[in-house]
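Progress against Task 2.4 (sequence-to-structure conversion) is shown through the following example record, which the project officer requested during the mid-term review.
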Amino acid sequence: MDDWYKNGWLKRHKTSAEEIRGLMAIVGRDLQDGCVDDISLDWRFGIAYNAALKLCTLVLYSEGYRAARDLQHYRTIQAMMIILGSDRKDDVAYLDACRKKRNIVEYEQAGVTTEAQADELVEFVRNFRTDVVAWLTENHPELVDR
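Structure tokens generated for the chain above:
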């Protein structure tokens, strides 16, 4: 992470249990909203993506950093391989593909998300949240509510 900081890709960030709690609340809200059938599949996907990004963000914050503005989502996601380990390579690749898809549905084209894609991302986020809470508890117990 120090190399990323020296390159200007990351900034120092001091987090708190309150900030982590707030981000977790956003994840919970977004997981709930991402399952609502009354909104478009594109929007459900975008909401679930936001939940995944918030989980990545709170992991990065927990390590004392935040992504610089340039390529913020990309760097936040890519940092997971460094922080959580190289065994998360497939998860990082999946989230990066979701990031690209989210950009398409947000800025370029509507109606390109399938129900299976939206549901898959919601399920991924549920599992990832469990993993992140376990990681936080082990590595930064001072940031976890007991």
